[in-house]
Design brief:
mainly alpha, flat
């Protein structure tokens, strides 16, 4: 048991004291992360540069001279519901307004 403690202590002591390798390793990992971030930023800029530019004001769609066209006007017939003590569940409600259009 005593030998295990001594070995464990020595391993921890070796890791704690180190010989500079762990510090160098951390610096290399940091440089690698920064390089990957810079590469991702450059790649995103290239992709954005290839995308089409937004339309200029003269390329925007305009309203016709006689105003907007094609308004949709709907006249729906109300579906009267009988008074109940409990609320209706969605599957008990008829067609969401489609029924009255189909009858015509």
């Amino acid at each position: 048991m005593e030998t295990l403690r001594i070995e464990a202590l020595t391993v921890h002591q070796q890791l704690a004291t180190g010989n500079g390798v762990s510090g160098v390793l951390l610096v290399l990992v940091g440089i690698l992360v920064v390089a990957v971030l810079i590469a991702a930023f450059a790649w995103g800029r290239r992709i954005k540069a290839r995308a089409p530019a937004p339309p200029r004001p003269e390329e925007q769609p305009r309203l016709p001279a006689d105003g907007p066209v094609g308004y949709a006007v709907e006249d729906r017939e109300p579906d009267e519901l009988a008074p109940r003590e409990q609320r209706l569940t969605p599957h008990e409600v008829k067609g969401n307004g489609i029924e009255s259009r189909r009858r015509r």
